[in-house]
Structures are given as structure tokens and as C-alpha cells.
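thought: user wants a sequence for this fold. calling inverse folding tool.
action: design(structure=
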């Protein structure tokens, strides 16, 4: 298999013409949806460049929040041969195997009111299985070890502000070079669902830095903007390129929403107390509200930004707003629901390329935009061409 070490942190301003970005939203077990899409994308890249290539070979930065942060680490953490620990096709089997243990099913004996009261007694899950799993898989690998730039947002409940983990910054600041397992646990610590997470790092002079983290979705459930220069630090080594948005190729993957179901309304919410906001028929309206809001605001900003420079085709957002029932739960890890989530991802590939209508909050097909599968195939060709150009320029430098 090809060594991936030479691909680490290729500088687009030197080796290529484009800045390539992959962004993956948070959403718990619904990470199966982008996992299905990533498997398709990697297969198209392999058709063009060979079975040994991986997604990390093609993206200058991969950003992920919560479950998206876990997928990001899976795709970029190196094995002994400096190849990614996981290929994209490994994501779904990973969720199928570990999802039911990360989100164990309740005994079914609690009545709805008892469940609401139970949410006030502590997180829904203790998180022990997830923490052990991540430590076992990622071991002593740190942010700087990632095979390409990665960005994973969290929220520090002690400082009441976002803490953004960047593998680029980790190379220059040891206090930010946390273990990948710690970062993944922190970004996945969804309020109500998992306990918050504390750890500390130490720099070369022995100074310690503390982190008191909850889910990155509190700040940036859709982390696409964090991969762009104005709000991120992925490209501080190439400022002239970073502000030229026409140079970006961005794929942003959602984990689905239940907007079309319209399961909440003002009449209902007007009567809710604390318990209702925290727990409602297997969901948390409060968590839904802040994650959906931040997700759509980022998508809207990205779409308007690329439209303003007439490069709309350089930004591909794939999202499903038609989830209903158990499909929309972030912790429903039954075999039946996980199978349904795969089917949703496969259906999304066949759906037309769509963009957010800010007035309705729903995604609408783009005229003559083709399907998401066709768009990803087009992106795969551009990514392969960009990689080829970089190799040629590097060889002749």
C-alpha cells in the first residue's frame, strides 16, 4: 500500500491550484448517513487512482464535529505504515458493531414521565464504552499525527467558549496537541446524552492546560466554516490563497434533520418546562434547536459566499431534511434503524443536488444540478486531477 506520509499537509499554494475541504456534521448514530456517502466517494477515487488511495490523500483539511469528529479521526489517524486506520467503507461496519454498545437500549420499563425525570438525574448514557473504545483504537496518537489537516470543534463549559482543535496549530503549540482520543471524547460529549469530559495537556516547558469539554455541536455542529481562513487556522501558512474562495472545493455532509416532520410547534413549546425541553419522545428539543440552527446558518453562509463569486458548483452540501420517527434520533442504535440510515444515505446519492431555502428552511433541488451521485463523481474527477497536478509540480520543483 502507498505510504501516506508524503501527502501530509501538502501546501496548495505551492503544489496545486485548489484548496480541498471535507466537512462532516455531528449527529450521533446518524453519522451512518455521511459514512455511506463517503464510502461512495472513496470508491470513485479508487476507480480513478487505484484501490490503495484513501480520502486523506485528497483533502487539505477534513473538519468534523461530534460523530463527524470521530469519522474524521478514523479517516486520518495513521497506522504503522502511515496509512489511515480506517477506509471509508469501514465506517458503516464500525457503527453497526459499536453503536448498540455506545447507545445501549433501555429496559423499556420506564414510562414517559419517569424517563423525563431520569434525564434530570444525569446524562442518558455514562459514556464508558465510547471512551474505552476511542482510547483503544486511537492509542497514543495525537493531533499532529493526522495524515492531513484536521479541525474538530468542542465547547469548553468552564470558559463558556468554543475550543477548536486543529492539527496545524498542534504542530506549533504543544498545549493544543491533545490525544486524538481525548479530542474525540470531548467533541462527542453531547449535553443530556453523555457526561462532559475533562483532561489536560502539557507543553515542552511543563506548563499545563485544562479542558472542560462538551459536544462541539454546541458551537459548530456544521464545521465547514472552521475550515475556511476567516474563522479557522487551517491555512495560516498561505494567507494569499486562503481568502480566494474561488480556489476552494468543498464537500459538506449532513447527518439529516426532521424538519419536514414538524414535530414541534409554538403551541406545544409554550407549555414546556425544563423536562420537556430536555426530553420529548426520545428527542431533546433543546439539542435539536441549537444544532439545527448552527448547522443551517453555516450552510447559508457558505452557499451565499460561493454564489457571490459565481462558484456555486465548487460547494456541495448533501443533507436530508425528511427524517421521521426513530430515524431522527441521534441515539437509536437498533439494527433496524441503522439499516434504515444506510438506506437513507443511499437514497441521498440518488436525490437531486439541493440547496437550502432560508424562507422555508427546507432543501430544494437545483435546476439542472443532476444527482448527488453525479456531483460527487464530478468532484472525484477534480480531486484526482488536483492530486495529479500536485505530484507533477512536486516532481519538477
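)
observation: tool returned 397 residues.
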Amino acid at each position: 500500500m502507498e505510504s501516506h506520509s508524503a501527502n501530509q499537509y501538502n501546501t496548495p499554494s505551492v503544489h496545486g491550484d485548489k484548496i480541498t475541504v471535507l466537512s462532516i456534521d455531528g449527529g450521533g448514530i446518524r453519522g451512518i448517513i455521511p459514512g455511506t456517502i463517503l464510502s461512495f466517494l472513496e470508491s470513485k477515487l479508487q476507480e480513478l487512482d487505484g484501490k490503495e488511495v484513501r480520502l486523506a490523500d485528497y483533502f487539505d483539511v477534513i473538519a468534523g464535529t461530534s460523530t463527524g469528529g470521530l469519522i474524521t479521526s478514523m479517516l486520518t489517524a495513521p497506522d504503522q505504515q502511515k496509512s489511515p486506520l480506517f477506509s471509508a467503507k469501514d465506517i458503516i461496519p464500525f457503527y453497526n458493531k459499536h453503536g448498540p454498545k455506545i447507545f445501549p437500549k433501555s429496559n423499556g420499563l420506564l414510562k414517559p414521565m419517569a424517563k423525563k425525570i431520569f434525564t434530570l438525574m444525569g446524562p442518558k448514557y455514562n459514556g464508558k464504552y465510547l471512551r474505552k473504545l476511542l482510547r483503544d483504537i486511537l492509542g497514543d496518537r495525537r493531533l499532529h499525527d493526522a495524515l492531513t489537516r484536521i479541525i474538530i470543534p468542542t465547547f469548553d463549559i468552564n470558559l463558556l467558549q468554543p475550543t477548536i482543535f486543529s492539527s496545524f496549530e498542534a504542530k506549533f503549540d504543544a498545549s493544543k496537541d491533545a490525544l486524538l482520543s481525548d479530542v474525540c471524547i470531548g467533541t462527542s460529549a453531547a449535553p443530556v446524552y453523555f457526561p462532559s469530559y475533562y483532561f489536560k495537556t502539557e507543553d515542552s516547558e511543563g506548563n499545563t492546560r485544562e479542558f472542560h469539554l462538551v459536544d462541539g455541536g454546541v458551537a459548530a455542529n456544521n464545521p465547514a466554516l472552521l475550515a475556511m481562513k476567516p474563522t479557522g487556522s487551517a491555512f495560516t501558512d498561505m494567507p494569499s490563497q486562503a481568502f480566494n474562495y474561488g480556489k476552494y472545493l468543498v464537500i459538506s455532509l449532513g447527518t439529516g434533520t426532521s424538519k419536514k416532520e414538524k414535530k414541534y410547534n409554538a403551541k406545544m413549546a409554550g407549555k414546556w418546562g425544563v423536562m420537556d425541553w430536555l426530553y420529548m419522545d426520545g428527542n431533546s428539543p433543546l439539542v435539536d434547536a441549537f444544532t439545527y440552527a448552527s448547522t443551517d446558518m453555516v450552510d447559508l453562509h457558505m452557499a451565499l459566499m460561493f454564489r457571490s463569486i459565481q462558484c456555486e458548483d465548487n460547494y456541495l452540501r448533501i443533507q436530508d431534511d425528511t427524517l421521521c420517527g426513530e430515524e431522527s434520533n441521534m441515539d437509536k442504535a437498533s439494527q433496524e434503524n441503522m439499516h434504515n440510515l444506510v438506506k437513507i444515505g443511499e437514497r441521498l446519492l440518488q436525490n437531486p443536488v439541493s440547496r437550502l431555502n432560508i424562507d422555508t428552511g427546507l432543501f430544494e433541488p437545483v435546476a439542472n444540478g443532476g444527482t448527488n451521485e453525479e456531483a460527487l463523481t464530478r468532484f472525484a474527477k477534480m480531486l484526482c486531477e488536483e492530486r495529479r497536478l500536485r505530484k507533477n509540480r512536486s516532481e519538477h520543483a
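thought: summarizing for user.
answer: Here is the designed sequence. The CA atoms of residues 61 and 316 lie 15 Å apart.
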